[in-house]
What does this fold into?
Amino acid sequence: MAKLAFIGLGLMGTPMATRLLEAGHDLTVWNRTALKTRPLTDQGAAVASTPAQAVAGADAVITMVTNAEALEQVVLGDNGLAAALVPGQLLIDMSTVGPDAVLSVAARLPRGVAMVDAPVRGSVPQATTGRLAVYVGADPSDFERVEPILASLGTLHHVGGLGSGAATKVVVNSTLGAAIAAFGEALALGDDFGLDRSVVLDVLADTPIASTVEAKRANVESGRYPANFKLSLALKDLNLVNQIAEQTGRRLELASASRDWLERAAQAGAGDLDYSAVIPTITTDGGRRPA
Ligand code: NA7
It folds into this structure.
């Protein structure tokens, strides 16, 4: 078993760190909001007062934070990891930050410290039960090192060298944005035809967006959208998709449209709700063109 540091105990980080602890790893945790370390310390994790302190003596440190700015902060900010990491230690970033941020951070680590990007698909239920898909960007020898560490979190896919895990995750989440927007637009269309909502939901459960309908139907029917994956984070990911499209000159029309829907929902105050809270933005009057 490994000695690990875990940085970032949000919605995803907390169940992931819990599984690492349950798998028998020796865990030291740090979170910006210290109160959130409590569930982990109750289960036997040690708590550090800074990221730098968390990494002392660890084989590897895992980061699971909001975005590229947060990753920069915990790695390169005051009392960040970079100041404390020593040759032979490994940084595994599991946040969704895109490949540019991964390569930029890796380039500023001390010599002899390897980095692996390993973002995940799946939200809180999959994190809790160890059924995440983990997209690993790593040199072959670094992949061998991370395999036994991450095995309890889900299924590992070694998708290429450093940065390719982050790129794969951006690709994956481009489909997530399109699927949730397609779901909302299909419901809006059904409403405008005067169709029965529950019949439309039944029918959509047997279409190419079936898995999205199955996962989010309860939210739609209850009108409640508790976060499994925050809308603000889905918007961040669609912004990453659109940034790459701009850099390469590629037309990604669906990515642009789904980003716009998520942005409207965020402006309407849904940022901390589940990303499926984009659906009422689409189906209610806010989703109509001005007359
Ligand atoms: P959450 O639940 O929003 O958690 C985000 C975590 O990142 C949480 O621990 C935050 O600390 C931490 N964070 C955010 N900004 C900073 C800065 N500037 N410095 C240090 N720590 C920070 O997100 P999820 O767990 O759902 O998702 C995590 C990633 O996986 C994200 O990239 C998703 O897109 C996928 P806090 O508790 O607020 O103090």
Q: What stands out?
A: Residues 3-161 form a domain with the Rossmann fold fold (CATH 3.40.50.720). The mean pLDDT is 97. The first strand starts at residue 3 and ends at 7.
